[in-house]
Write a structure and sequence with these properties.
Elements lengths: L11 E7 H12 L5 H9 L3 E9 L5 H9 L3 E4 L8 H19 L5 E5 L6 H9 L3 E6 L8 H4 L2 E4 H5 L13 H16 L5 H11 L13 H10 L3 E4 L5 E4 L1 H18 L1 E3 H11 L13 H10 L4 E3 L6 E3 L13
Helix pairs in contact: 8-9, 11-12
């Protein structure tokens, strides 16, 4: 008999999307179509997704329907009726389905409600009464202020997509290692410690075709040891070691960023990555575990290394005032 093992303790997740709310919010606030892929990646770092359901009148979202189907999302059609409220019908159907699943599938521990609509706050409260963890996902400008406090965790879609399309060519044969590092970064953000076995399962949830053999290693442990020798991660223990992002490579990246911004006084965010690569052609934020370049710069800002001002394509990166500057990671 095959043992269930530690994977049994990982969260089982059900995802429900109020798709019309998300699609309109992304189009009006961000000027783009909603991309479920970045949400799927973020959730793969948190547990095993069991169910994915999206609710809308799909005759209005033909291209979106194809995108969701590629991500194995079940499409629940709520046709528009003359004199009826399509929005309320979708909310009601979503709420009934979520509660029904919570009552019938006790092993599902986490419900992800993707919407910015406060009308679904009672659903969030009821799921928490049933001892389920609830994660919300919404567009920042179209999310009601009442919804995030009702959830155990709330992720703004804007943060997931910021800088996702930065034009980096990842066809250099290091995609697998990059996947491992970015997954580790996500796990560290939601867990106190990460075991090698947990990391491997999360990587496979993101890409079931992943194989360390494609990277020239006979085992996942061998790949981790190679990344550790490069200073990209740290390993603690034997057998199933704890894994964390390494400080040495991250420290060098911090020093590079501060040096470039110091020399230029200020750099447009849209040109900052090219400026870093002009100094170090091997720079890659994904090799440091960041999902995109925007996440790397925001993390540096949070540590007081740089300051971002302005909006959208007019954002500028400069050094913070001396009184607020803090030291980065130690190498």
């Amino acid at each position: 008999m095959t043992s269930i093992g530690p994977d049994h303790a990982e969260p089982r997740i059900a995802v429900y999307l109020d798709y019309e709310n998300l699609a309109i919010g992304a189009r009006e606030s961000l000027g783009s179509t909603f991309d479920f892929g970045v949400v799927a990646d973020a959730l793969a770092e948190r547990g095993r997704v069991i169910a994915r359901r999206a609710y809308a009148d799909w005759s209005y979202f033909d291209e979106d329907r194809r995108m969701l189907t590629r991500h194995q999302v079940e499409l629940i059609d709520i046709p528009q009726k003359m004199g009826g409220s399509r929005k309320n019908a979708a909310d009601i159907k979503l709420a009934i389905d979520a509660i029904e699943l919570a009552l019938e599938r006790s092993f599902i521990s986490t419900f992800v409600i993707c919407t910015g609509d406060s009308d679904l706050s009672p659903l969030v409260q009821k799921l928490r009464e049933l001892d389920r963890t609830v994660i919300g996902v919404g567009i920042r400008q179209s999310t009601s202020k009442l919804l995030p406090p009702a959830c155990d965790e709330f992720m703004f879609y804007d943060n997931l997509v910021l800088g996702a399309d930065d034009g980096e060519d990842t066809s250099d044969g290091n995609d697998g290692a990059t996947l491992v590092l970015s997954t580790l970064a996500g796990l560290e953000g939601s867990s106190d410690s990460v075991r090698a076995s947990t990391l491997k399962r999360a990587v496979l949830r993101k890409d079931p075709t992943f194989s360390e053999a494609d990277l020239g290693h006979r085992s996942f442990g061998s790949l981790l040891r190679s990344l550790s020798s490069d200073g990209l991660i740290s390993l603690d223990g034997e057998g199933d070691p704890r894994v964390s992002l390494g400080d040495s490579a991250a420290g060098r990246a911090d020093e590079l960023l501060v040096s470039v911004v110091t020399d230029a006084k200020e750099v447009p965010l849209t040109g900052l990555k090219d400026a870093l690569r002009n100094v170090d052609a091997d720079f890659s934020e994904r090799r440091l575990g960041y999902r995109n370049f925007g996440s790397f710069v925001r993390a540096a800002e949070a540590r007081g290394l740089v300051k971002i001002t302005g909006k959208d394509d007019g954002r500028i990166v400069r050094l913070p005032s001396r009184g607020r500057s803090r030291r980065g990671r130690k190498s």
